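stuck on this fold:
=====
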Amino acid sequence: MSIATLSATPPPPSSKTAHRTGRMFALTGAVVGVIYGYDTGSISGALVFLSKDFHLTETEKGLVNSILVFGSIVGALIGGKLADALGRKAAMLIVAGSYAVFVALSAVAPNVVVLDTVRFLLGVAIGISIVAAPLYVAESTPARIRGASVAAYQVATVAGIVLTYFVNWGLSGGGHWRWMLGLSAIPAALVMIPLLRLPDTPRWYVFKGRTERAVEVMAMADPDVDPRAEVASVEAALAEESGGSARSLLRKPYARAAVFVVGLGFFCQITGINAVTYYSPQIFEEMGFTGSGQNFLLPSFVQLASLAATVLAILIIDRLGRRVVLLCGIGTMAVMLAVLTAVFGAGELQGATTWVGFAAILLFTAAFNFGFGSLIWVYASEAFPAQLRSTGASVMLTADLVANLLIAQFFPSVMAWAGAARTFAGLGVLALAALVFASVTAPETKGRQLEEIQDFWRNGGRWPAPAAVPTSASPGAHGNSAVPPTTTS
């Protein structure tokens, strides 16, 4: 359906109904984030006990941990195409159903071969979810709260990780690793209920030519805009674009955007956050901590601080802007890595030095979740126009997962070979490189409509100057004939 065929705007739903619908979009995405965080972190405690039950070698332990990341890379690569072909909602339903099935199967796995196979498939579902869930939220929420709504996915993810550590701690007495792995099957199944009742996103309906349905959903999701005008803007933007493949990202004007999202995704992980998540017991042991606090409680406190930092990011991201939050987070990470380098370089750790190291780990992790952790989902869902959005998100998050795999695979051996001080110094250099990269390439998208953000890339990485509005003194200006502001696309 063309723009010309759009008829008069139907009566909009009440503001209360629209706000409730918008909250349901965000809440559903957040629940998926909690399950994702739990499933990612649950192996940290379960591995301690299942390794004894299955008599795993060190290589087999590493594979149980990293096989999920391999699956996530596959899922991220196909997630964009799946979300485009079937819809954001359908992709979310597939994710929720897969979560429920595969975590339940992992809990009853009879041997490590079955466990690895199921965890690979669970990883594929996770990879799809980290593409589809932020897209689903970003394309369904108003511009004024989009940053906070998408960043809420990171809050939910961190909340899931926090929950993992406390559940693991509670079940560790009996070594109940099967319960540790399988408990998230219940919320994964339950989240399918609201998903079945919610529509897909307005922009996906436009993408598929279902313009009238897009108008209906736009009116439901955002009571503050003219739904037909917004849908017309989306339709016009789609009409100007071609392609949607990864090859399209290499062409002007979006090659610059592709460099930004791939670089941001890679730096997000290569700066070492999952070295702390996956190997915190080893790091705390290097600091001199021992016992159950090392394995479960100290990481729980670290993740609680991260949760608080992510909530803070949500509260200010749509006020101060994306760049301020991102650069503050990365800068703090670099400072904390310098502190850790000094702590481990001081020699034998004891007394106050040990707690300085713990505080640096806590603040490093909190800073990551404040900056990188919150903003990667926002930029993944904002940086590209509708036809390239899911493809761009897939490419960005694939770069993120490849860096994650490198950290998961090589951090322990680098620690053993180079020592903790040099390892954290290297991560600090990478954090400084990330800070420079982000300061040069990251756009400020606060308050911008999704269709408007493409103008930044079309204009060579700068926002276009606003169109001049003639005044009454201008030649040809008469009474009410002033030129209206240019409609963005």
In short: Confidence is low (pLDDT under 50) at residues 1-12, 469-489.
